[in-house]
Design goal:
The chain is an alpha+beta fold and 64 residues long. It is built from 2 helices and 3 strands, in the order E-E-E-H-H. Strand 1 and strand 2 form a beta hairpin. The longest helix has 13 residues.
């Protein structure tokens, strides 16, 4: 990865955006391609969960 290409993570412990050298991976979300996307990590998770919860192709309540 070149100096101009960098990835970012959102630290779940510190609620802060970190670069490659940050907390352990188990404590953070990412990588994201931009600092701005990493800052929205919790919003992105919520949006994805909402989409998956309302996916008509998936039904956890179906009887087997």
């Amino acid at each position: 990865m070149s100096d101009t290409e960098q990835e970012f993570w959102f630290c779940l412990t510190h609620h802060a955006v970190e670069g490659e050298e940050g907390c352990r991976n188990a404590d953070r979300l990412g990588p994201y391609p931009t600092r701005q996307q990493a800052a929205r990590a919790l919003d992105i998770v919520e949006e994805r969960n909402e989409a998956w919860d309302n996916d008509p192709k998936w039904n956890d309540d179906a009887e087997r």
